[in-house]
Amino acid sequence: MRFLAPFVPLLLLFLSFLFAQTGGTGIPPNEDRTLGNPVPDVILVDSSGKKFHLYQLKGKPVILSPIYTHCTSACPIITESLKKTIKLFGQPGRDFYLISLTFDPKDTVEDLKRFKREHGLGEGWTVVLVKDKSKLFELLDAIDFRFATLPDRQFVHPNLIVFLDKDMIIRKYMYGVSFDRIEFANALRIARGEIALPEKFRGHLFLVGMLGFVGTVVFTIVKLSRIRYRRKMTA
Amino acid sequence: MDRAERNALTIAVILLLFFFTLIVYAAKGLKIDLPTCITDVQPFKEGRLIKHAPDRYELHVVARMWYFDFNQGSTEIEIPAGSVVDIYLTSADVVHGMHINGTTVNLMAIPGTVNYARYRFEKPGVYHVVCHEFCGVGHQAMQGRIVVR
């Protein structure tokens, strides 16, 4: 069994890389600071101009998709991918809530209406903006979503969706413009409170990686000095 | 290996691990945001101050020989106290540095790349911005001002 010893720290290091977050474009959110925290109760305005509190959606998991309506690249792809993926997991509005949230402070109800119409989003799928601009950033800060403004109202932003549980607690992020079914199913289960173990493990992932890194460094140093010592003795 | 040499090496490794632990503690324990180099933002040509909300700004800074372009050529900007500013920094010519005095913002301005930091300006006052990377004959005069009211 001794020959397995050097692989233990390497395995820990590998595990930390394997499960490390991937943010795609822009500045990825720092999940350590957001997972397990509630989002603020902001007033949202949907594509028909109806105002409602985010906390009115308490009771079912919420899938939050930050987008901006003038996007010509990632946001339409995210929306279309979501449309295909959610078909396998139920009806938005009945089994979970699905919200496309515009983070562009200049977006209007007309823009939401156009976005919803262009993508043919059904009744259960809500496209919203936050009524108050400062509150918009409170919500974006809660999920640590950061964007950079480009000319012509374009933005650089991370491509992601966020899963909130029935109490509006941030439970899971999924990255990319298309969504793996198995990963999506897992995320939805976490949002429903069905599996909590990976989430608990995630908080300690960095320490596991550190342990692996330090272990690898110390092991290599010890091993090298032993080899040198043996060579010296034989010489 | 000589004993003194081995001791020096051991101490160096211990110190390295100690400082690395401090960095990790600063990033994780104290929740300090480390500057981030953004690889997928096209470096901008002109400085801009964009107001998103009454307390939320985006600042695109272009460092060039020998001034900081904060907003369409202006080297001074004014924001209200309590504002959160997302600072994006690039350079139009050579490598510059940007330190906002009295804050933890300390970035490198490298041509072709964009560096990022976020800072909340809580206290009103004048925050002097200086270049801390020697960038030529006008380096000592390269500065700007952020006025927080």
Using brief descriptors, characterize the structure shown.
heterodimer; A: 235 residues; alpha+beta; Glutaredoxin; 7-stranded mixed beta sheet; two-stranded antiparallel sheet; 9 strands; 42% helix; elongated; B: 149 residues; Immunoglobulin-like; 2 domains; 6-stranded mixed beta sheet; 5-stranded mixed beta sheet; globular
Structural summary, described in words:
With 235 residues, chain A is of the alpha+beta class. Chain A has one domain: Glutaredoxin (3-Layer(aba) Sandwich), CATH 3.40.30. Helices cover 42% and strands 18% of the residues of chain A. In chain A, helix 3 (74-86) links the parallel strand 3 and strand 4. In chain A, helix 1 (7-18) runs antiparallel to helix 8 (205-234). The longest helix of chain A has 30 residues, at 205-234. By secondary structure, chain B is α+β, with helices and mostly antiparallel strands. Chain B has 2 domains: 1-33; 48-148, Immunoglobulin-like. Chain B has one helix at 3-29; strands spanning 36-38, 48-53, 56-64, 67-69, 76-79, 83-91, 96-100, 106-109, 114-121, 125-130, 143-148. In chain B, a hairpin with a 2-residue loop joins strand 2 (48-53) and strand 3 (56-64). Chains A and B meet through helix 5, strand 6 and helix 8 of A and helix 1, strand 2, strand 3, strand 6 and strand 9 of B.
Give the SSE layout.
The complex is a heterodimer of chains A (235) and B (149).
Chain A: H1 7-18, H2 31-34, E1 43-46, E2 51-53, E3 62-67, H3 74-86, E4 97-102, H4 109-119, E5 125-130, H5 133-142, E6 148-150, E7 154-156, E8 160-164, E9 170-175, H6 181-191, H7 197-203, H8 205-234
Parallel strand pairs in A: 3-4, 4-5
Antiparallel strand pairs in A: 1-2, 1-5, 3-8, 6-7, 8-9
Helix pairs in contact in A: 1-8
Chain B: H1 3-29, E1 36-38, E2 48-53, E3 56-64, E4 67-69, E5 76-79, E6 83-91, E7 96-100, E8 106-109, E9 114-121, E10 125-130, E11 143-148
Parallel strand pairs in B: 3-6, 5-11
Antiparallel strand pairs in B: 1-9, 2-3, 3-4, 6-9, 7-8, 7-10, 10-11
